[in-house]
Amino acid sequence: MNLYGHKVNQLGRYFSKALNEGITEHGIYSSQWVVALYIHMNGECTQSELADYLYVEAPTITRTLSRMEKAGFIEKRIGTDKREKIINLTEKAMEAYPKWEAVSDSLENKAIEGIDRAELEIFEKVVAKMMCNLKGDI
């Protein structure tokens, strides 16, 4: 029996739990952090782009974005099509971003302690291949 999927899922759960424990004191949850990270790295985007990137259904991303909007971390505006929503980080989010990033970076550094660069490169390749293999099934 292969348990690779289970192990990947468990790693994700450990990481999300630990990230939430550190990042919630800064007013955000791990599910919101990945949204902020994506927008920070890529610039404004549509709600659909976020849902596609995160592989979540529309209602899930809508709830996450609504919470972020209420907290003052994102702004929504109508795109070229009335149904399209453009999402951007607010000034408040940009000011808080370095704190969020520091928590995430610290956790990642803890997670990779004792793992050399060559092993991490293999890990990155394996994860990328697994994601590519599954994209057709998602």
TrEMBL record:
Q: Which UniProt keywords apply?
A: DNA-binding, Transcription, Transcription regulation
Name of the protein in question: Transcriptional regulator SlyA
PROSITE patterns given for it? HTH_MARR_2 (PS50995)
Q: Which GO terms describe its molecular function?
A: DNA binding; DNA-binding transcription factor activity
Please tell me whether the keyword Transcription is annotated for this protein.
yes
Which CDD domains does the record match to this protein?
A: HTH_ARSR
Boundaries of every HTH marR-type domain copy: 1-132
Q: Which InterPro entries match?
A: ArsR-like_HTH, HTH_MarR-typ, WH-like_DNA-bd_sf, WH_DNA-bd_sf
